[in-house]
Amino acid sequence: MDLNAILNEINHEIRPLLGQGKVADYIPALATVDPGQFGMVVTTNDGQIYAVGDAEQKFSIQSISKVFSFTLALKADPDALCRRVWREPSGNPFNSLIQLEYEAGIPRNPFINAGAIVVTDSLISHFGGQDQALSALITFIKETADTPDIEMDHKVAISEMHHGYKNISSANLMKSFGNIHNEVDTVVRTYFHHCSVTMTARELARSLLYLSHHGTDPLTGTQHITPAQTKQINSLMLTCGHYNASGDFAYRVGLPGKSGVGGGIIAVVPGKMTLAVFSPALNEYGNSFIGTQALDLFTTKTGFSIF
Ligand code: GLU
Questions:
Q1: CA distance 199 to 201
Q2: Which among 195, 221, 252 is the end of a domain?
Q3: Do 168 and 69 belong to one domain?
Q4: Is the CB of 112 under 6 A from ligand 1?
Q5: Is residue 216 part of a domain?
Q6: Among 3, 105, 220, 244, which residue has the fewest nearby CB atoms (within 10 Å)?
Q7: Which atom belonging to ligand 1 lies closest to the Cα atom of 26?
Q8: Does the pLDDT value for residue 92 go beyond 90?
Q9: CB of 63 closer than 6 angstroms to any ligand 1 atom
Q10: How much is the pLDDT for 58?
Q11: For the residues 170-178, what does the mean pLDDT come to?
């Protein structure tokens, strides 16, 4: 199958849609991103790279970072984590507080904000502090992306610190139930910083190859997690990777995926390849409008869904 031709076709078909959707402006530092960008990359398990559009543009990976933080937390202490975060779709927006109170401070899954904040808390405890947790996370991303060129954007993190009222509220609520072990301020600061990592679509697609190859990087042979843990992460991405649009994403794309409000989406075709798309204008659920459409076109044209 000629994947270059397919990506070019998709690029051509989505162009008329550019202009629809809206960039995330609840984080002021993201409000000025050019909404007219689109990039898409496929990386196969044998190392072929197919790219179109703004594939080399660095962008804020935001909630895609939850896949990396959850991977590290699963490695560190899977049993404790299972008691502190459920594994069910929430059916609610990414920063909702509603379920948290009547479910006694246990978030529905690790990919909604509250769940990722608990994951971050567990990493701070495991690695012995905020700096150590962030450093472990960045080291892991650099290793999986196979590049030293990965950084956090402190301007974006600070911007979110000043405006992330709901995330701070949910951390406080969970603390009141005993499900946050470190200081709330430290936990949300660490969470905002890991969300602020910037990467290109090419780097993202490369970094997720371990999820399409049973936990082992197919190009370096490094085993990051077990095949069972890989199954768990992919299953959670399929059922919970797009907040209250997770069902719609699964219906349209048919792949495990994770979105971020910076406009990125990653997806995994187990055993074959990973995909990353970038287009900053979001739909009403906080997922890239064009990115979702591009992935829908990809699996429809190639048949590379898991179904
Ligand atoms: N840092 C963002 C927040 O907590 C991440 C949300 C997302 O990317 O979906 O609101």
A1: 7
A2: 195
A3: yes
A4: no
A5: yes
A6: 220
A7: 10
A8: no
A9: yes
A10: 98
A11: 98
